[in-house]
Amino acid sequence: MLHIVACIKQVPDTKVIKMNPKTNTMDRASAPAILNPYDAHAVEEAVRLKNKYGGTVSVVTMGPPPAVKAIRKCIEIGADEGYMISDRAFAGADTLATSYALTKAINKISEIKPVDLIICGKMTIDGDTGQVGPGIARRLDIPPLTSVNKVVEMQKEDSYLVVHRKLEDGYEIVQTTLPCLLSVEKEINEVPYSSFPNMLKAARYQPVIWSVNDLEDIDRKQLGLKGSPTIVAKVWGPPKPEGGKILEGNPDEQVQQLLSVVLEKKELFAEMRGSK
Known about the structure:
Layout: E1 3-7, E2 10-12, E3 18-20, E4 25-27, E5 33-35, H1 37-53, E6 56-62, H2 68-77, E7 81-85, H3 95-112, E8 117-121, H4 132-140, E9 144-155, E10 160-167, E11 170-177, E12 180-184, H5 196-204, E13 208-210, H6 251-274
Parallel strand pairs: 1-6, 1-8, 6-7, 7-13, 8-12, 9-12
Antiparallel strand pairs: 2-5, 3-4, 9-10, 10-11
Helix pairs in contact: 2-5, 3-4
InterPro entries: ET-Flavoprotein_bsu_CS, ETF_a/b_N, ETF_b, ETF_beta_N, Rossmann-like_a/b/a_fold
Cofactor: AMP
Protein name: Electron transfer flavoprotein small subunit
């Protein structure tokens, strides 16, 4: 039977999150935690493939105990099983350390049932890097296909998959072998409202939770802050937009004022290009 694993993350809702003006850091307490929107589409696509070809869908995440909420949301969408790795040793992980920890979790899931396909969202809305999915694929030594907006065909018996990858000027059709990893765009599907039976199942669902001691062959130097070479030196909110400028005087004077603004912006853009 086909076994698909979707990697997910609980993130703050960036539509309402605020920045702390004193520390220039995100005030995560100011926004509710939600399932990363791209990951919701990844889970939905996994469920659609399960319904079409048969099999099961598991989801896996790394996070603090409240991240159980994100797993339950995936059960609502139609996932069958949920796994979470949660431990202080994982705290402060960048994309490199995160991909390492999730790879170890996927290896443990594979011992329960071999994994045929891994699906990730294109990126998370709190990081916007898009690096974790390809990082997992590299560690597992399987093909990564990014920016996927359509799964055309999948055959477990013949061990291949055909997808459309989104490009700037169109798309390309790619065939690859299984197992592989996909990172998907939002337009790959529409996530429908959850069915009532799935909502009841999700409300009662208790995922499997592993600590760092439950994972095998772990190098603790590659976890959390110790395993994160990326350092965020500074974070700040964008400046508030300035108010519009009212042109005064007769038409000729207004034209001159407008030209001065255009020329000023042109010089600014020229300086920005020259500094690259």
